[in-house]
Amino acid sequence: MSEQELNSYRFVSGLEPGDERLSQIMKEAAETAIARHQAAEAQISMKIDLMRKELRAKWSNQIKSAING
User: Fold this and answer.
1) Nearest CA among 3, 37, 39, 36 for reference residue 21
2) Is 1 helix (H, G, I), strand (E, B) or coil?
3) Ramachandran angles phi, psi of 15, nearest 5°
4) How many alpha carbons lie under 13 Å from residue 46 in its C-beta half-sphere?
5) List of residues 6+ apart from 31 with CB closer than 8 A
6) pLDDT of 9-23, one tens digit each?
7) Which helix (H) or strand (E) element contains residue 55?
């Protein structure tokens, strides 16, 4: 099935998709969902790492201040 055929299909067309078309649609939907999930996980991981570094720096400064008075 060509990409143009796949992209031209709409569920609201009144026609049920064939098994091949439905399988292709579901496969692409799953691939898209997986890619979005991985991108979101990467973004969250980067934010957590940044927050961890900021907290370590903050607590390091507070500990140094407490030690040095």
Assistant:
1) 3
2) coil
3) -110, 135
4) 6
5) none
6) 666 666 777 888 889
7) helix 19-68
